[in-house]
Write a structure and sequence with these properties.
single chain, 529 residues, alpha/beta, seven-stranded mixed β-sheet, 7 strands, 9% strand
Length: 529
């Protein structure tokens, strides 16, 4: 048999392309364009609300809800001379919960910050929920608690004999103690969070004077955002989340997803909503949705900020994003029907929860980003029968990017890196979303994000893209990223040689981003580097 010539292969590919590939790709293009339009409308609505109503018109939380300083106290009270509680009504009892798991690098920071909170000493209890499995770390944490107890701080060190339910299980167990049940409000801080001393003086008055509010959420700020390019990109995404998503949700619907930390809950709202549940990896969002269905209102206060730490290794960031994305999609699967049939909230709120909060942001967004920008556009470069409209290829992505850039003006120069990095991460987020949506094997995987703590201050001279040593590189090669990079290189090269479009310029850049992350040239070398 004579070997196939180039013309024969080209003819066969053209026939296959026209009969099978093009129709399927065309359907995928229009599906992506429909999802892009949904995402654009959602992003535009949130941006308009947060920018105009909250920023331009100055509709601050203090203007919408009653806020008065606690009697006998101001935000500037000295930590060493806390306000005195004259009677039980002026200063409610507050429980501060700090869940932790093998947090050797940060346990002192969080415990110290919690113990320094300005509040009458007879009206506050610090509760350290230690699920550590390392006996040395457990001993260190217990000694730290004993040290603060010797300074007349009411601090409780609580441990469990198992890690059932992970964080949700620890928080639930912590609330079962008699002293916890006597508290009116609970402030929750993850082990790497360091609230300012006046945190309670700024947040509790909203809850005291507005009985309809169940949760006051503060904004996160980051002590290590400048250690590498990856942490700077994370800061951009999280700043957008707080400035746009949380702010608009708080203003328009008095609802948003609890961030799991840096917030204060009303105990009665937690109890009425069924308490903490460990059915997903987003126990915070689970509680928030159930409380929202009970009619409780949430308040986001962006002027109150709490220091925290960003994952500084690509491995840690991937685990974190899988937990957040998979858990949210899994919660949508488990609560969708409950939300739809709930009779305690309006149709408008049901629509917001089902369509905006869950479907568009937690399902459409991660799937669309990967499918459109990493699969459909590159493949269309090899299929000339399929044309993507310019409004879907350029205008919509540009509009969404501009809306993000407006809220991150100081990071404008990083937007190209942000786009490429987010497209790479979309592969993991899409897989996590589908895992949660279909509840497959890894739907409930929980990996605690590694922390650095004080080590972040030891050396800020970390390059934006820090390479790994040869001995470390073999352990940090990510095969999925490299396979996607190969696919993108093939599509880009085909477009460059045979195509009439200029998609290859974008596709080559995206392939380079996958290669960079695939070989581990991102983040810091180790959590403690």
């Amino acid at each position: 048999m004579a070997p196939l010539g180039a013309d024969t292969v080209a003819t066969a590919w053209a026939a296959l392309r026209a009969r099978a590939v093009a129709p399927a790709l065309r359907a995928a293009v229009w599906a992506c364009l429909a999802m892009s339009s949904m995402l654009l409308v959602e992003a535009a609505c949130m941006s308009l609300i947060s920018l105009v109503a909250v920023r331009m018109l100055r509709w601050r939380p203090e203007r919408r809800y009653k806020w008065e300083p606690m009697a006998g106290a101001t935000a500037g009270c000295d930590v060493e001379d806390p306000p005195e509680s004259t009677d039980g009504r002026e200063f409610p009892r507050v429980l501060v919960q700090i869940p932790m798991y093998n947090e050797k690098e940060v346990y002192k920071l969080s415990i110290g910050a919690a113990c320094a909170l300005t509040w009458p000493p007879d009206r506050i209890i610090i509760q350290v929920l230690d699920d550590s499995t390392d006996p040395i770390i457990k001993e260190l944490v217990e000694l730290e608690c004993q040290d603060w107890a010797s300074k007349k701080i009411d601090i409780k060190y609580e441990v469990r004999n198992n890690r059932q339910g992970y964080k949700a299980g620890a928080l639930k167990k912590g609330m079962e103690h008699v002293y916890a049940q006597q508290c009116d409000f609970i402030a929750i801080f993850d082990a790497d969070f360091q609230p300012e001393s006046d945190f309670l003086l700024k947040t509790i008055p909203f809850l005291v004077h507005n009985p309809e509010i169940a949760l006051v959420q503060a904004r996160w700020e980051f002590v290590n955002y400048d250690v590498c390019l990856m942490t700077r990109i994370q800061k951009m995404s999280l700043d957008y989340h707080f400035k746009v998503e949380q702010e608009s949700g708080s203003f328009m619907h008095a609802f948003f997803g609890f961030n799991g930390t840096a917030g204060v809950w009303r105990v009665s709202a937690i109890n009425q909503s069924g308490g903490w549940k460990d059915r997903t990896t987003v126990e915070d969002m689970d509680l928030a949705v159930r409380a929202g269905l009970k009619g409780w209102e949430f308040l986001y206060v962006g002027d109150i900020r709490v220091k925290s730490e960003l994952p500084s290794t690509f491995k840690a960031y991937r685990y974190q994003q899988h937990r957040w994305t998979c858990g949210a999609a899994n919660l949508f699967r488990k609560m969708g029907w409950e939300i739809a049939t709930n009779k305690g909230v309006s149709i408008w709120k049901k629509y917001h929860l089902l369509y905006s909060f869950f479907f568009v942001r937690r399902v459409i967004a991660p799937i669309l980003t990967f499918v459109l920008y990493c699969v459909v556009i590159p493949l269309s470069a090899m299929v000339p029968e399929v044309t993507i409209p310019v409004w879907g290829l350029v205008y919509i992505p540009t509009a969404i990017t501009i809306m993000n850039a407006i809220r991150n003006p100081r990071s404008l120069h990083l937007m190209p890196f942000w786009i490429l990095f987010e497209n790479v991460m979309s592969m993991h987020r899409m897989r996590a979303a589908l895992t949660g949506l279909f509840e497959t094997a890894h739907a409930n995987d929980w990996v605690v994000t590694e922390k650095v703590g004080d080590l972040v201050n030891d050396d800020h001279n970390v390059p934006l893209l820090e390479p790994l040593k040869p001995t470390e590189r073999a352990e940090r090669i990510y095969i999925p990223e490299l396979l996607l990079a190969l696919y993108l290189l093939i599509c880009a090269s085909y477009d460059f040689v045979f195509g009439s479009r200029t998609y290859y310029m974008y596709i080559y850049l995206q392939a380079f981003a996958f290669i960079v992350l695939g070989f581990g040239f991102v983040g810091t070398k180790t959590p403690c580097s």
